[in-house]
């Protein structure tokens, strides 16, 4: 017994020392390279506030960015992992565009995942990413988006009829906007990516809506394991059968895509949606010897459409509504443009009409500047790279981050950054600053492939909504708003409540 105790007296301190050494051995990385950095803390690096949920992900990124004012690059530690923050717009251009061949991949945490997750475009690397991206790119041309916009118009009309039935009092109706626009976005994605008529506005308990709502519901213990692996030993990930997505939801979505695909091929049904474009690409590749696509890859992209499009687009819509409620003059000016342009198009909110609305474009871009759904863009160095005009050389596997949230709030690019001012995105103002200080969709070959579709559907939602309805603050509106500390993506803490009123001169023409 005494012998065993003695053994533990020796083994335990050795294990603790090894644990401490493993957790801190990278902590001299930035000092050795002569890169400005914040001294890291054991286990947390520089992100303790985030790990303990004291601050939102977006606020932390902003704080880190402003800790290094005047620096072109800076070093941070996420747990024990060193990450290079690139702050200078010209260096951002090099990383994302000119020298992209050195930064082809994203630093994805690779768990032992099913094909519908591991084959998502966002997860693919190197040559496989390049070939799948090349096949997907034609599905997002303006012509294809114009065809799909007809499906978005159907959902827009459903939204207006839902509101007409709901709002029967002249003083309007209080509504949580994230939930409301979440249903619109979900219906658009269900229709375009899965070929499913969801109508979650009228039927919030519809099967597709119920499953999609549980997309990120994973048990707390799994979340804690993922967080610890991410901070301490990402190499372990590929041995663990974990996922950021609920397994039951994945099963459901996989079967929806598979069933729809089989039914369309068997019955010769065609529809102007993303899934059809993927099925066509899959069928045309069948005869080729070196085919890139298979059913798993098609299913993965449909699920990615939901994963990448749902939270982001609905967040942009609800924060845009919030800013319009607080700025009634901007709301009126936007509504005037909408009425003027729609009159030219016979009152129809179609693709061409929406493309003509310049002020609408400015409003949405200013909303995404203030509230970018994604706080930063990450890249992984894939071959050695000497950063120009510095003595820093990045080795393969080094992590690089582009601080989107910080750039969007930097007063040297955006004077008085807290103010909501769509005119920042007039062509004259845009010409005065680098395009690399506004990055809601990233940039370069690995930018968001669905950006134009997302913008089109978001604009259509606002046009349908603002034609007949107005928004204003209500008793539940939280001013100032706070971002949720428990989400990686942008979310308002306790939601965004506004009062929706039917306009006095409302046309009710739908």
Automatic annotation (TrEMBL):
Principal subcellular localization: endoplasmic reticulum
GO molecular function: heme binding; iron ion binding; monooxygenase activity; oxidoreductase activity, acting on paired donors, with incorporation or reduction of molecular oxygen
InterPro entries associated with the record: Cyt_P450, Cyt_P450_CS, Cyt_P450_E_grp-IV, Cyt_P450_sf, Insect_CytP450_Detox
UniProt KW keywords: Endoplasmic reticulum, Heme, Iron, Membrane, Metal-binding, Microsome, Monooxygenase, Oxidoreductase, Transmembrane, Transmembrane helix
Cofactors required: heme
GO cellular component, one term: endoplasmic reticulum membrane
Listed transmembrane segments: 6-23
PROSITE patterns for the chain: CYTOCHROME_P450
Membrane topology (UniProt): Peripheral membrane protein
Binding-site residues for heme, renumbered to this chain: 448
Pfam family name, one: p450
Subcellular location: Endoplasmic reticulum membrane; Microsome membrane
Chain's role: May be involved in the metabolism of insect hormones and in the breakdown of synthetic insecticides.
Similarity annotation: Belongs to the cytochrome P450 family.
Protein name as catalogued: Cytochrome P450 9e2
């Amino acid at each position: 017994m005494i012998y065993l105790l003695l053994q533990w007296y020796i083994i335990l301190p050795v294990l603790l020392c090894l644990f401490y050494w493993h957790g801190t051995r990278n902590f001299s990385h930035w000092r050795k390279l002569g890169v400005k950095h914040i001294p890291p803390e054991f286990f947390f690096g520089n992100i303790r506030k985030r790990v303990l949920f004291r601050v939102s992900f977006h606020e932390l990124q902003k704080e880190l960015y402003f800790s290094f004012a005047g620096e072109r690059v800076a070093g941070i530690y996420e747990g024990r992992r060193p990450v290079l923050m690139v702050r200078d717009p010209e260096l951002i251009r090099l990383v994302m565009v000119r020298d992209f061949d050195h930064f082809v991949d994203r630093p994805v945490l690779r768990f032992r995942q099913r094909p519908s997750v591991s084959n998502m475009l966002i997860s693919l690397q190197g040559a496989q990413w390049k070939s799948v991206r090349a096949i997907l790119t034609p599905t997002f041309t303006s012509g294809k988006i114009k065809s799909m916009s007809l499906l978005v118009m159907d959902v827009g009309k459903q939204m207006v009829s839902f509101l007409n039935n709901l709002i029967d009092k002249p003083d309007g109706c209080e509504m949580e906007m994230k939930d409301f626009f979440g249903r619109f976005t979900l219906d658009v994605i269900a229709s375009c990516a899965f070929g499913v008529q969801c109508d979650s506005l009228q039927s919030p308990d519809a099967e597709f809506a119920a499953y999609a709502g549980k997309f990120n519901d994973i048990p707390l213990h799994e979340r804690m394991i993922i967080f610890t692996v991410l901070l301490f030993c990402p190499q372990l990930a590929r041995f663990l059968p974990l996922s950021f997505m609920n397994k039951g939801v994945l099963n459901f979505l996989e079967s929806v895509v598979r069933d729809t695909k089989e039914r369309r091929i068997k019955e010769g049904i065609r529809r102007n949606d993303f899934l059809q474009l993927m099925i066509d690409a899959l069928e045309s590749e069948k005869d080729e010897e070196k085919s890139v696509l298979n059913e798993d890859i098609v299913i993965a992209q449909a699920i990615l459409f939901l994963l990448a499009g749902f939270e982001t687009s609905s967040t942009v819509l609800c924060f845009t509504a919030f800013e319009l409620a607080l700025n009634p003059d901007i709301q009126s000016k936007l509504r005037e443009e909408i009425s003027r342009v729609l009159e030219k198009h016979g009152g129809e909110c179609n693709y061409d009409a929406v493309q003509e609305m310049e002020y609408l474009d400015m409003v949405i871009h200013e909303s995404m500047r203030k509230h970018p759904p994604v706080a930063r863009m990450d890249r992984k160095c894939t071959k050695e790279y000497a950063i120009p005009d510095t003595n820093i050389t990045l080795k393969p596997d080094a992590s690089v981050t582009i601080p989107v949230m910080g750039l969007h709030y930097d007063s040297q690019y955006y004077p008085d950054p807290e103010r909501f001012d769509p005119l920042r995105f007039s062509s004259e103002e845009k010409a005065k600053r680098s395009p690399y200080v506004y990055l809601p969709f990233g940039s370069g070959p690995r930018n968001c492939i669905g950006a134009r579709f997302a913008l089109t559907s978001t604009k259509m939602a606002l046009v349908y909504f603002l034609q007949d309805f107005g928004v204003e603050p209500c008793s539940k509106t939280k001013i100032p708003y706070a971002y949720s500390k428990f989400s990686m993506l942008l979310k308002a803490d306790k939601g965004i409540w506004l009062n929706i009123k039917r306009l006095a001169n409302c046309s009710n023409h739908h």
